[in-house]
Amino acid sequence: MILTEAPVVTAALEAAVRAPSPHNTQPWLFELGPDVIGVVLDEDRGLEVCDPDRREARLSCGAALLNLELAIAVAGRSCDVEFLPEKDRPELLAKVGIGLRHRPTAAEQRLAASIRVRYSNRRPFASTPVPAWARHAVRRAAREEGAKLILLDEVGLLETVAGLIRRADHIQLLDERFQAELREWTREAGSHDGVPAYAGGPRPSGGLLPVRHHGESDRVREFERDPVVAVLTTPTDGPLAQIRAGRAMQRALLTATSLGLSVSFYSQPMEIPSARAALRSLLGENEHPQVGFRLGYGFPGTTTPRRPVEEVTRSRPDSEGLRRR
């Protein structure tokens, strides 16, 4: 039996599974041992067409890792994170050791409170501008995790990158394998994973950029003609950089949520190698683009479902279970 009844562990796992993932695949497992939670990449839940090298899956696990840490912190415990701790197990992305007492900061409390209410808002945003102070806060959040958040309108690249996103979206629209994979992860109500049709948003009409559509909705809505689009980059690439990028992405998303902002992703150019390379050339060869998203003030929506904690946890082979806290 896997023991998850210790309050701090339960809270940490329930927060971790609220992380975002492509098509809501939830590509993570959590290994429980005495005072340790391992974050494992679940290769079986990867997307073979749009994420064959599991880059986006590692981002998702990095986001889950940050949620895990925040929940432990607000539960009053410290934690110690070790990245890629076992060379012979590359799927083990991190180990989180649960330590002694910790007094949570106001920032930790604010971000942790945003975990359960954050969601991808695939609907049109309001025309209300995103103020400079909010932009700065989201940029600073990414920087705290060693990443850079580039707001395209501020560097004069919005129109150029918009063209790149539209071309990537068109390539995926014509790719039968990609469309089949998208349909596979579009779910009916009641499923614990995938994107429910009700969360897929309307079909886009007009607007500067295409928003990925899930489901067979007949609703058509016009999207923003002047969206705030951000691209998160890292100075290097590879598994460790991708895990860290996922943490930076999640810290930025939770910060945005705490400020009343909505977010949805532009994954198209990240999932086509030639488009990602072109984007890197535009941003600078020292910047590896990891994720793109739009920011704005959205109309209310709902969170998407997650698999139960019991479904994504297992005991470490060398573990006898967790001590109660």
Automatic annotation (TrEMBL):
<feature type="region of interest" description="Disordered">
    <location>
        <begin position="292"/>
        <end position="325"/>
    </location>
</feature>
<feature type="compositionally biased region" description="Basic and acidic residues">
    <location>
        <begin position="307"/>
        <end position="325"/>
    </location>
</feature>
<dbReference type="InterPro" id="IPR000415">
    <property type="entry name" value="Nitroreductase-like"/>
</dbReference>
<dbReference type="InterPro" id="IPR050627">
    <property type="entry name" value="Nitroreductase/BluB"/>
</dbReference>
<dbReference type="GO" id="GO:0016491">
    <property type="term" value="F:oxidoreductase activity"/>
</dbReference>
<protein>
    <submittedName>
        <fullName>Uncharacterized protein</fullName>
    </submittedName>
</protein>
